[in-house]
Every structure is written in structure tokens, then in C-alpha cells.
Amino acid sequence: SPCEPGDTADSPHRPAGGMRKGLTSYGDQGFSLFLRKAFIKGAGFTDAALDRPVIGIANTGSSYNPCHGNAPQLIEAVKRGVMLAGGLPMDFPTISVHESFAAPTSMYLRNLMAMDTEEMVRAQPMDAVVLIGGCDKTAPAQLMGAASAGLPAIQLITGSMLTGSHRGERVGACTDCRRYWGKYRAGEIDAEEVADVNDQLVASVGTCSVMGTASTMACIAEALGMTVPGGASPPAVTADRIRIAEQTGAQAVQMARDGLSIDKVLTPAAFENAMRVLLAIGGSTNGIVHLTAIAGRMGLEVDLDALDRMGRETPVLLDLKPSGQHYMEDFHHAGGMATLLRELKPLLRLDAMTVTGRTLGEELERAGPGFPQDVVRTIAHPIYPQGGMAVLRGNLAPAGAIIKQSAADARLMEHEGRAVVFENLEDLATRIDRDDLDVTADDVLVLKNIGPKGAPGMPEAGYIPIPRKLARAGVKDIVRISDGRMSGTAFGTIVLHVTPESAIGGPLAHVQNGDRIRLSVKNREIALLVQDEELARRMRANPVVAPTAERGYRKLFLHSVTQADQGVDFDFLRAATMVGKVPR
Ligand code: FES
Ligand code: MG
User: Fold this and answer.
1) Strands 479-482 and 390-394: what pairing?
2) Is 496 helix (H, G, I), strand (E, B) or coil?
3) Cβ neighbours of 287 (radius 10 Å)
């Protein structure tokens, strides 16, 4: 009988459980399975199909998400891989979050997507899950959710978009989006040209083609051992990407059979490798927030000071915009992550397990020798001598702040200047372009209330625009400080993630126009040059009331969201107990 409990336990073809997993609904296990099979048979399945390992495929395709525009092709290929390996593929929808179509911010919705992923993976019968993600918040949300769900899980990245061409110049989202908009603001190009380039910046479906957050998280997913080897770099529309999808499906079946659950992959060694890679690729500063959140799900705390020490011995090797010159498709042609990892080998934990059931070191052996290319530099000739980002501390950021030094103006990294303060995004929008704004290129722009609770959702508004009157005068960079985030595709001397944030009364809340601020990347310092007594007086005179909401997800978010140093995850979603720190 198909509904006898335990009738598959000794079958070599279906040890993973098939449709039997998670039968808790009706008390009577036999009846539960009977009903479950009756309903799924409504879709035309046979018993033979249903007794195979069931591989869930988290489908994040959406008309609102062109970065996942290849989801239908990927799902088809994953299903082929699953079936060739003897499994049963079952795709199911979860929320999809695109950077440009998620108000108030995509980050506000990342934790919701993580919860959706976790609970649907847990609720539905599956023995392993393929997570199709790509746009900035999606892969981290899926890794967070899958880490908590605990099943065997494998990440399938959607892949980068192709680059376009504008009047003979190669362009790609979205470092070039910013560059062209900057030119337009400065009056260097006209409205017709800025409309022309708009057609070329995103030349196909797929994720941003520079080392923004999407590319960063793709590389991190592979460095964590969560993708098949080579899973990070193939562009979305290539045959290589489709082959990766097929392999991913087949590997998911193997993982189900072997019981290769996510806790065997997401170990401290894996996180250490991911941090090493984040630094060596000149990755997005968002990567550290996401890694912190994923690690938190596994009971691991990210030690920012140890990360900073790691950064001092990890050069930036990947020559991609915005730190360098190339695009993701060039990285793929240069051999992708195997080329990078081979160069980083002396710095990696080669014993880290991957989704293939082999260690990172074993996979690197199998990847074979490299070949001449000019996208991944050698450790002897890096594009930047230290890691892409540095961790700053000081009275302005007692729990830390981040600067992406590889994408900053070297001239401004030791700088003292006068604060020009904007209280929030509205204040910024109203005044930043006014001709009577009292600002010079030597000042320090300070933007408050764009932290996790402030905006809310920690928007990527940390990339404060150069005030129009300075831009017109040719100023390309200025020191900027906020409690928000910045797109990985942006460039500038920009201090981010100031913690604690101003909306909960962090010192940033009490900065005033004309205060002196000192930035020293060399000393890893961000200091407000105001006496402690004066700062305490300001705090007493203007006590901050943290924002709250009446109802709904916003209420949950404002109640539960943690600060940047805990990954901006919800406090109740982190592991109940912390068991260790990363990196070592
Ligand atoms: Fe989706 Fe950039 S907008 S990756
Ligand atoms: Mg982005």
C-alpha cells in the first residue's frame, strides 16, 4: 500500500523520504499521506514519481524582478537535473525582492523573504531545496531562511546581466548608471543623451554586472560552499548558466540522499572563507551585513575587529568595477571563482565542506590549473594592497562603522572637516542642491535617520550625492557619514553602517552643524571632536524616541530589527544561543 508508514525506509532509490517528510497534520500518519497523495495526484503524478526524493525549487521569478528574468529557463534546467538524478522536482513560489521595486527599501523586505523561505521549506514535503536567487537581497534572504530550516540546501544564482554599449562605450548597471547621472547633474551631458544611455545600462535580464551586492553575494555563496563549483559567475543568459542549473538540480538529489544538511556546509570555516573572498573581491559593504545575518542563524557572531585584521592581510585581487575596470562576464571568461580561489589558496580554510560533498580544497584540485587572464590579479600584484573594506570605531560609532576604502578617494582617507548635517532623507532632498547651502569640498556631510529603524530598512542612501554647486565646480568626492548602507556599485569616501544608529539615540543623532569630525582610515577611527560633557548635555536636551508603528509588518520590523553589527536580522530569528565567533 502506498500509505503504509515507513514503507520506503529501506529502498535504495528513495531513502530520502519523498512525500512522507513532515507528516504531522492529522495525527493519523497514514491518512495524512493518503490525503497528500490524493491531492498531488490531481496534478497527474504517479506513485512511482512520488516515491522519489522530493527536491523543492524556490521560484523567485516575478515580473517585478528582471534580475530573475531567466527563472523559467533555470527552473526547467534544474528539473531536468533533478529527474536525471532520480529525484522529483517541485517548484514553489516565494516572495521576490528587486532593488528598484521594493518600497521603502529592499532591505526592509529581506527578513520577510527569509521568513517566507524558511517556513515554506519547513512546511512543504521536500528532502532538499534549490534556492534560486540573484538580486541583492534574495540570495542572503534564502541563505538565512534555509540556514534556519536546516534541510540540505543549494543556492542557484540567476547570473549577471550582459553589458551594453552607449555611443561606443561599454556600460553596465549600475556603476555606469551613477556615472552618467552624475554627468547629467553636472551639466556635462544633455537630457537626450541621458535618455539614450538608459536603454543600454541593463542590456539583458540578470543581476547588476559590476561587483555590486548581487555579484558579491554570488561570490560569497560559492565561497561558503553553497553553490556547485563555478556557480557564481556565468551570466544569466548563457549556456554555462543553464548547465550550472542542471548540475544544481542533480546535486540537490545527491545531497538529499546523503543527508548533507546545511549545517555541515555553513561552518565557521565556510564563513571565514566567505569573509576572505568578500575582502579580496572588493565586495559590497552590504556583504558584511548579510554574512552577519546568515552567520547569526547558525549561532555564529561576526567579529568586526577580527574581520578588519583579516582585511589588512587580504589584498583586493578582482579587477571589477567599481574598485577596478571589468564586469562580471569578464570574470566568468577569466575562469570565475576557481581563478580567484586558486590565488587566495594560502589564505583559505581548504577543509570547509561544500554542497558537492567534497571540501573546498578538493574542488580546487579538480578545477585544474589556471590560464593567462587579466581580471584576477596575483597576490604579488593586487589592485589594492589591503582588503576592500575597513572597520572604523570611535565616539561617533561605538559599535562600529564601515568604509569601502578600495572605492574611496585616497586623498580623503585622513581628513578632518566641519559637519554639514541633514536630519533625514527629506531634509537632504530639500537642501542638498540649493545654491545657498553652506558647504565646501573640505566639509563632512552627515546624514541621520537612515539606519535599520530610521528610514526604516537601512536604505542605500549612504551614497549622499555631491551637493550640486560642488558638483558643478568639479568636486568628485567628499567625506560622507551615515547610519545607512550604500550600493555596492557606488564609489566615494563614504562611512556607512554607523552603529548604534541615530533613530535609537546613537551619538550620530547629536551631531550638529559646524562640529568637527575626524576620519582616519589608517587609525580605523571616526571621531566627533566634541567634549563628552557637551555630547551628554545634547543627549539630555534632545532625548531620542525610537520609531514604532501601529500595526502590520512595519510594527514587527521596528520592534524586532537588530543593528548592523547583528546583521539587521530580526532578534527572534537569530539562533537562540551563540556558539562561536567568526572569523577565528
Ligand atoms: Fe538586481 Fe542590481 S538591481 S542585482
Ligand atoms: Mg545594489
Assistant:
1) unpaired
2) strand
3) 28
Tell me the three cell numbers of residue 51. Answer: 516515491
Enclosing H/E stretch for 400: strand 397-403
CB atoms within 10 A of CB 366: 11
Q: Which three cell numbers stand for residue 450?
A: 537612515
On whether the pTM is more than 0.90, the answer is yes
Which set of grid coordinates corresponds to residue 9?
Answer: 525506509
Residue to probe by mutation, ligand 1, list 62, 98, 107, most atoms within 8 Å of CB: 98
Mean pLDDT by 10 residues, the chain (584 residues): 37 57 74 91 95 97 98 98 98 97 95 98 97 98 98 98 97 91 90 97 97 96 98 98 98 98 98 97 95 98 96 94 91 98 97 98 95 97 90 97 89 97 97 97 98 94 94 94 90 95 98 98 97 96 95 98 98 97 94
- CB neighbours of residue 572 within 10 Å: 9
ipTM surpasses 0.85: yes
H or E segment to which residue 274 belongs? helix 268-280
What are the start-end ranges of the H helices in 88-162?
106-123, 138-149
How big is the chain by its Cα radius of gyration, in Å?
Answer: 24
Closest atom of ligand 1 to 212 CA is 2
Q: With helix as H, strand as E and coil as C, how does 106-122 read? A: HHHHHHHHHHHHHHHHH
Q: Which atom of ligand 1 is nearest to the CA of 174?
A: 2
